[in-house]
Amino acid sequence: MNALAQLGMVSEHPSNNQAISVPVSSDDDRKDYFVEKDGEKFAGTHLLVDLWDATNLDDPEKIDRTLCEAALAAGATILHSHFHHFTPNGGVSGVVVLAESHISIHTWPERAFAAVDIFMCGACDPNLAIPVMQRLFQAGRLEVDEQRRGRVAL
């Protein structure tokens, strides 16, 4: 983690929302982080969020803070984040790495568009991240596609 911090790759917004301890005594004691919902068991929920007619797409610091806040709102545990600012158009690409997976973003300010990818497992609800992001981006049109990843037969 120190090497990441020196490279500026660690967010100043880490969290300890979930204390995860994995017992080493036996496989039978391990917690299953798969989700059971609506008669299905799956690894987690993956949201693909398209934000159209959006604003604030060129400020990596604001985007970092907002995506970290969105992760916390969803109940996730932040491990670190990293964002890159492109020139000359000002787009931003970045990721918030979570214990429960990730939130990533790619922005095109010249098109007023952002593509956000939210994947979370366990007790997190990635849908709770969307209103937090909408506060910053003020998208005129929001499209969300939801997938359940890692489906298993019950």
From TrEMBL:
Gene3D superfamilies: 3.30.160.750, S-adenosylmethionine decarboxylase domain. Keywords: Autocatalytic cleavage, Decarboxylase, Lyase, Polyamine biosynthesis, Pyruvate, S-adenosyl-L-methionine, Schiff base, Spermidine biosynthesis, Zymogen. The keyword Mitochondrion does not apply. GO terms for molecular function: adenosylmethionine decarboxylase activity. The active site is at 101 (schiff-base intermediate with substrate), 106 (proton acceptor), 121 (proton donor). InterPro entries: AdoMetDC_C, AdoMetDC_fam_prok, AdoMetDC_N, S-AdoMet_deCO2ase_core, S-AdoMet_deCOase_pro-enz. Pfam families: AdoMet_dc. NCBIfam families: SAM_DCase_Bsu. Catalyzes the decarboxylation of S-adenosylmethionine to S-adenosylmethioninamine (dcAdoMet), the propylamine donor required for the synthesis of the polyamines spermine and spermidine from the diamine putrescine. Heterotetramer of two alpha and two beta chains arranged as a dimer of alpha/beta heterodimers. This is S-adenosylmethionine decarboxylase proenzyme.
